[in-house]
Amino acid sequence: DAKTTQPTSMDCAEGRAANLPCNHSTISGNEYVYWYRQIHSQGPQYIIHGLKNNETNEMASLIITEDRKSSTLILPHATLRDTAVYYCIVRVTTTGNQFYFGTGTSLTVIP
Amino acid sequence: DAGVIQSPRHEVTEMGQEVTLRCKPISGHDYLFWYRQTMMRGLELLIYFNNNVPIDDSGMPEDRFSAKMPNASFSTLKIQPSEPRDSAVYFCASMYGTSYNEQFFGPGTRLTVL
User: Fold this and answer.
1) pLDDT at residue A93 greater than cutoff 60
2) Which residue, A27, A43, A87, A94, is most buried by CB atoms nearer than 10 A?
3) How many CB atoms are located within 10 Å of the residue A72 CB?
4) CA nearest to B80, candidates B53, B93, B61, B108
5) CA distance B14 to chain A (A)
């Protein structure tokens, strides 16, 4: 299974862009990169996913390097409500639809 | 849709007692997942079902844990007998398999075993 590595914690000033990195150097060609987040005491929430190309939706942007060994989740204008743990997940396509969540990055948005 | 529904939201029991956690997935979803979250181990996948059939239960910690999905709208996770180390938040999630593979999580059940 492809493994992901994320920083344990990060801070970001309110209104600024939050850039959350993720390393997945052993990712295989047919594996997608997914991002979820978990706000305190709630279940995880899907944010975005991608395969090769950069992706953008109403919540965030996902930048994947050309060699696909790393990616960055960008929250363009962080708010206090974005304070959460962010999980970078590589989907294991060969063994079904399960997701393996690591320990994630704890993002604190500072007023 | 009301989203994934879990019950109870909180459960406090004594060691040795049987505990049953319940989950109602989102209507039309064909995958259902059970996760456990603790401070020490983070979020762990316990088991998942596809069309009510268990596909992978390799994350189930031991024989004290069992999960069933008798129909498309209901699943249970049972612990018998419970132990203090089972104390955790248990999440249920559902997904429509041919979509973007977005899992929808329930609010979780906080289990405390004394």
Assistant:
1) no
2) A87
3) 16
4) B61
5) 23
Max CA distance (Å), chain B = 42
What's the per-residue H, E or C state across B69-100? EEECCEEEEEECCCCHHHCEEEEEEEECCCCC
| Residues of chain A positioned with their CB less than 8 A from the CB of B107 | 42-43
- Look at strands A55-56 and A61-64 and give their pairing: antiparallel
Work out whether the CA dihedral B102, A39, B77, A34 comes out positive or negative. positive
Contact check, Cβ <8 Å, B103/A95: no
Quick: pLDDT tens for A9-49: 999 999 999 999 999 988 888 788 999 999 988 999 999 99
The Cα–Cα gap between B75 and A15 comes to 42
Task: Please report how many Cα atoms fall inside a 13 Å half-sphere around the Cα of residue A33, on the Cβ side.
Answer: 31
CA distances from B78 to A11, A93, B72, B91, B95 (A): 39, 29, 18, 13, 22
pLDDT (tens digit, 9 = 90+) per residue, A42-57?
Answer: 999 999 999 888 999 9
Q: How far is CA A22 from CA A18, A96, B68, B84, B110, in A?
A: 13, 23, 35, 34, 30
